[in-house]
Amino acid sequence: MKKTALIMAGGKGERFWPRSRVNLPKQFLSLTDDGKTMIQLTVERISPLVDIKDVYIATNENYRELVKEQLPGLPEENILCEPVGRNTAPCIGLGAVHVASKYEDGVMIVLPSDHLIKNNDIFKDTFVKACEVAESGSNLVTVGITPNYPETGYGYIKYNKDACNNGSYSVEKFVEKPDLETAKSYLADGTYLWNSGMFVWKVSTILNCFKEFMNSTYNGLLKIKDSIGTDDYQKVLNEEFPNLESQSVDYGIMEKASDIYTLAGNFGWDDVGSWLAVGRIKANDSEGNVINGNVVAVNTKDCIIEGAEKLIATVGLRDIIVVDTKDATLISTKENAGEIKKVLAQLREDGNTQYL
Amino acid sequence: MKKTALIMAGGKGERFWPRSRVNLPKQFLSLTDDGKTMIQLTVERISPLVDIKDVYIATNENYRELVKEQLPGLPEENILCEPVGRNTAPCIGLGAVHVASKYEDGVMIVLPSDHLIKNNDIFKDTFVKACEVAESGSNLVTVGITPNYPETGYGYIKYNKDACNNGSYSVEKFVEKPDLETAKSYLADGTYLWNSGMFVWKVSTILNCFKEFMNSTYNGLLKIKDSIGTDDYQKVLNEEFPNLESQSVDYGIMEKASDIYTLAGNFGWDDVGSWLAVGRIKANDSEGNVINGNVVAVNTKDCIIEGAEKLIATVGLRDIIVVDTKDATLISTKENAGEIKKVLAQLREDGNTQYL
Q1: Shortest alpha-carbon distance between residue A291 and chain B (Å)
Q2: Chain B interface test: which of A294, A319, A329, A335 (most B C-beta within 10 Å)
Q3: B317, B329, B348: which to substitute to probe chain A, counting the most A Cβ within 10 Å?
Q4: A with B: how many residue pairs have Cβ under 8 Å apart?
Q5: Both ends of chain A: CA-CA distance in Å?
Q6: What distance lies between CA B342 and its chain's CA centroid?
Q7: pTM for this prediction
């Protein structure tokens, strides 16, 4: 069966300010030493399984040109611009009807555009298996991540280790972000995975799920499907999409459906949730620093310094993040990196939107 | 007797990098909220005692234009440019022969150009008294600073509290920078002052001291004196000045002379030795920060942030100094501010002299 991929690339990614901006979110940034952007790496990673002409990018009009620039081999009609954001269920539904209008049926791999994977071979092998499980019936397959610490910022997938199907396990339930004690018990239990938002299913399977669990959304999606390839497409999309129920696929479908399987991804996944991730991803020097750009560091340890043109000189710093750009410089402790959003809130309040 | 002033403004002041540069040392920077530069404040402070036409600025050719720009009322011939730096004794000698060529005798007040004084009235009153003591005989007068903590970075003046002359005390000796225990004993003793490099004497007195204690320098100074006002001045200066003994006035004259008196300066003196001084000098906000320029500070306490045009956003910082300029940004802990010179050493080593 034909393999296709939907890569979700509509996110704003404020947590990489000031490198990321409203007009240049995280998925279009390079945060690795190889200089490739996150979305480029995502497409490259799936390319052994999916031909570029069967890759769809879900985004919005603001980022259409960025997608074209960064993915020059992608057919332009595969850039799916949502008129408004309606969470992941309508986004996935839009991708599904595009695939369905091109192929009678097909396997659909759904991936975020802004995660990093260390081992692409294991990633490929995992998704080969996931595709087999998806093709073998009306199964919804999600690839979870084996947790290695009790993270409280992710949802978890509880699976039944006795119900194995070609290396995948039957999912018992999806659980919300836990408190620390609960997260510790999940880790000890050994049958919980992090929910990473990566899915595989047949298009026919997911559309049947929309029909069953999100019926009005399903009807809207069918109207959009009928317009694909016609002059009316943009008009119909603009009319129908905003009326689709704003809902996550986890809540709208996964938590309601049966026949859900999960595979444990052990391919070095990182959701690159903040500047702290750069300390894990990029090469560290002997002092524990990640330093790039025009920087002179004196007595500086365990810092992340992303310089640009201007000279950045640091003295005596420990565990500090410095990110320089043409018009703004961020200086934050690693510990307080989560408060970067307060800077953006302040800028909005002050009307300094040029920096957002 | 005519009062004159020699303001020494040849220093390089690396410790205020990146605001200070080779071509813009500390004395030409504004480090106070009023926007006036240190040398402007120095001239303003002495103006109740000395007419601007009797103020001499000792500097070098690199800074001649800066002096002209910042002190437009100063006669151009009062800018004394040393061909090479030869420490304070020849510098003071050069000032002395300029005054001596203009007036038969006069009182000469010698001041650094890069210290700050909180209370100008007390400063004036102190120097009025110092002038009286200097005029009353062949006295060398130094204005010391009453210490309020055991500083190990300054030299000290030991005076005899029983030998009082119009509010001034006879100096017993000058002592080098002490270790901490010694500094504590000086503080406890109560008859030690910080040596701040501020002097008052008659021109005839100091020239007699040169004659007695630095005779070859004295002879060179006389040759320069004879050329003042002639077409040969620059030629003679260039020939003679480099041959003068490179010596501090403290070691070359003060430690050898008798009839030395000191007055205790209690006018809120600050030698503005590093960026830390800005935290003492400028207004602090409720979080203990000094913040200027284009800055958004989130959860930031006890920091000094001197922004410029580019937006500086800080998150979670404590006791950090940030100084932004057009081409370089310094980020240093307060604790390690003394290591800024290592940045300059690194820049020199790398050949990045454009930042010096």
Answers
A1: 14
A2: A329
A3: B329
A4: 121
A5: 44
A6: 23
A7: 0.90
Contact B311 A329 (CB under 8 A): yes
What's the pLDDT at B167? Answer: 82
Grouping H, G, I as helix, E, B as strand and the rest as coil, residue B281 is helix
Domain ranges of chain A: 3-270, 278-355
Instruction: Determine the distance from the C-alpha atom of residue B249 to the mean position of all C-alpha atoms in its chain, rounded to a whole number.
Output: 13
Q: Which amino acid is at A235?
A: K
Q: Which residues of B214-253 are buried (b: 16+ CB within 10 A; e: fewer)?
A: beebbebbbbbbebbeeeeeeebbeebbeebeebbbbebb
CA-nearest residue to B300 within chain A is: A332
Residue A324: per-residue pLDDT: 97
Residue A227 in tokens: 């317009």
Q: Is the pLDDT of residue A277 over 80?
A: yes
Which residues, given as ranges, of chain B have pLDDT below 50? none
| Alpha-carbon torsion angle A78, A83, A87, A93, nearest 10 | -50
Tell me the shortest Cα–Cα distance from B282 to chain A, in angstroms: 22
Tell me whether A316 touches chain B (CB under 8 Å): yes
| CA-based nearest residue in chain A for residue B350 | A296
Question: Which B residues, 296 through 315, put their C-beta within 8 Å of a C-beta on chain A?
Answer: 296, 298-299, 310-315
Among partner residues A298, A310, A312, which is closest to B346 by beta-carbon distance? Answer: A298
Can you tell me the distance from the alpha carbon of B269 to that of B262, in angstroms, rounded to the nearest whole number? Answer: 16
User: How many whole angstroms separate alpha carbon A96 and alpha carbon A110?
Assistant: 10
Identify the closest residue of chain A to B297 by CA–CA distance. Answer: A343
Task: Report the distance separating Cα B199 and Cα B210, nearest Å.
Answer: 15
The owner of tokens 């996964």 is: A254
Percent of chain A residues topping a pLDDT of 70? 100
Measured between CB atoms, does A341 come within 8 Å of chain B?
Answer: no
CATH, range B3-270:
3.90.550.10
CA distances in angstroms from A120 to A117, A256, B50, B158, listed in the order given = 7, 32, 78, 75
Crossing angle of the two packed helices A120-135 and A38-46, in degrees rounded to 10:
60
The pLDDT assigned to A207 comes to 98
**Cα–Cα distance measured from residue A306 to residue B17, given in angstroms and rounded to the nearest whole number:** 21
For residues B283 and B290, is the Cβ–Cβ distance under 8 A? yes
Average pLDDT, chain A: 96
Contact A329 B329 (CB under 8 A): yes
Residue B318 pairs in a beta bridge with: B301
Do residue A330 and residue B324 have CB atoms under 8 angstroms apart?
no
Closest alpha carbon to A263 in A174, A159, A120, A108: A159
**A298: chain B residues, CB-CB within 8 Å:** 336, 339, 342-343, 346
Residue of B299, B310, B328 lying closest to A336 (CB–CB): B299
pLDDT at A13 over 80: no
The reply to whether residue B333 touches residue A343, judged by beta carbons under 8 angstroms, is no
Is the pLDDT at A144 greater than 80, yes or no?
yes
Distance between CA atoms of residues B8 and B139, nearest Å? 21
Q: Provide the pLDDT for residue B351.
A: 96
